[in-house]
Design brief:
mainly beta, four-stranded antiparallel β-sheet, elongated, single chain
Length: 143
């Protein structure tokens, strides 16, 4: 499966989309707040989703799969003694996060696994076996 980049009807909107993305990096797909970026790929038997969640306790991340849609949600806590008014820049996102990702193929969500290491959460979801069509032979009854 290959990815196709979305392009608006009018090329003039390319610059506007880029500008809005730089101004509002927290808004993606009508989801407000901290939205973790993902990498998604597949191998022969699995769909694999990886996301960076450095500094977030894996025990506080909820992962669910329903109707071939993977949902990752949790909260990033701020651990700092600096008052907000003393910052020169404040770009690290904190707070709750949520990401809902439609998976590219039917999967067996009950057998999904997740592991965390070096700030990367890796979710491996086995593909569902393909249902083969069954040929039914017609038996003609004699009168």
């Amino acid at each position: 499966m290959s990815l196709i980049k979305w392009a608006p009807f009018f090329p003039e909107f390319d610059d506007m989309e880029k500008m809005m993305g730089e101004m509002l990096p927290a808004v993606r797909g009508n989801q407000f707040g901290f939205t973790p970026a993902i990498d998604m790929y597949e191998d022969k038997d699995n769909v694999v989703v990886e996301t960076q969640l450095g500094g977030i306790d894996p025990e506080k991340v909820d992962i669910s799969i329903e109707n071939n849609v993977l949902t990752i949600k949790g909260e990033s806590e701020k651990k700092s003694e600096v008052e907000d008014k003393n910052y020169y820049r404040k770009e690290i996102r904190r707070g709750s996060f949520y990401r809902s990702i439609p998976l590219p193929t039917k999967v067996n969500g009950d057998k999904a696994t997740a592991e965390s290491g070096e700030g990367i959460l890796k979710i491996t979801v086995p593909k569902a076996p393909e249902l083969k069509s069954k040929t039914i032979k017609i038996i003609a009854k004699k009168k």
